[in-house]
Amino acid sequence: MIRFIDLFAGIGGMRLGFQQACDVLGIESQCVLSSEIDKRAIETYKLNFDDQPMGDIRKIDIISEFDFMLAGFPCQPFSYAGKQQGFGDTRGTLFFEIERLLTSYQPQAFLLENVRGLTTHDQGRTFNTIINSLEKLGYGIHYLLLNSSNFGVPQNRVRIYILGLLGKKPKITINSDRGATDSHTFKEQLYQLSLFADPYLVVKVKDILEQKVSENYYLSKNFEQQLFDAVDGQFEKLHGVRLIDFRGGNSLHSWDLGIKGKCTKDERDFMAALMSHRRHKEFGNHQDGKSLTIEQIKTFFDNENMENIIYSLIEKKYLKEINGRYNPVSGNMSFEVFKFLDPESISITLTSSDANKLGIVQNGKPRRITPRECARLQGFPECYIVHQDDNAAYKQFGNAVTVPVIQAIVEDFIKNNSITKANLFSSVIPMVR
């Protein structure tokens, strides 16, 4: 029997992956404590595990003995009283609660999860603080940077996983792999692999789509019409497209959608050329996205109606002129969808703030992805109960861990460190402190 606790539990993704790993290995497991403060997440957790998470971990002092700690802890600012030694302390952060419980209970192992930016936060000092603190408690540490897209889910999600084993460094056969940097690179790598072997067995966005969805997930008629006009009625052109004014490339902009007034083809071509060329170093290194003169613009876009094009764009407030130099007016665009996924590739990283604004074109019609599709992007099984409030569900899956990644890590950890009921983990009846 492996007894474990599930801290900062969210909707139980780490617990689910841990339990699945134990089931595969034929090991019994028991969650003796779960802790979460978000009320909606607690509702979802209880629906799926028939277990009521306790609240704020800072207020929990008495726990049954446990062997394994799971924690997807928040990354907060760290203080650096010990800068001269290359590390600080963790007081005032939620990571301190992890330290407190490890110190008091000395479980045999733990698995922590966080965003990959943890490794570079404050020039790496935060990460060094964490590792140093864990090692001082007597744990050998191994950490991995892994991309969810390498574990059977079509999502580009890189996270750091920190494993600890009491008294010695854990043996792990999984290697860090950040995977493809984006959906375009993913497709290129997939193509290269297919040249030398059988079709590469991967899961793509198209594989996790629901075949029938509620009308609630389809776009408003006005927005759909704007997109229709922008892509000349060919919605398939939206595959992989982002709606943003701040960058070029595979993007649609406010002038493409006619937000402040419809633009002619020449006007849209002008703006596209300006967006793609204004960052070129030939126009200087003084800033990213430089304002350019007419003479500079003519080196990459020349049209006999240049003056009329520029005048019209300025009138519509898509273009601004300051001291004879021109630059796009880049506004914040807030639409029903900010990014359309490519069905033949992987999704961008789900986040709590915008999982509800990811789109897909299915059967020739654009729509938003559903909460169930978000669950699939995170590797949650079909039996998992999704919160009935869509807003809560989108947020929860954006915050969740990818279940198959947790399962793979735990299986590897247990196999390679001889973690069985008979040796490393105790099998006595839990005691209460």
TrEMBL record:
It holds the Pfam family DNA_methylase. It comes from the Bacteria. SUPFAM superfamilies: S-adenosyl-L-methionine-dependent methyltransferases. Keywords: Methyltransferase, Restriction system, S-adenosyl-L-methionine, Transferase. Its EC number is 2.1.1.37. The active site is at 75. One of its GO terms (biological process) is methylation. InterPro entries: C5-MTase, C5_MeTfrase, SAM-dependent_MTases_sf. The keyword Methyltransferase applies. GO terms for molecular function: DNA (cytosine-5-)-methyltransferase activity. Belongs to the class I-like SAM-binding methyltransferase superfamily. C5-methyltransferase family. This is DNA (cytosine-5-)-methyltransferase. It comes from Aphanizomenon flos-aquae LD13.
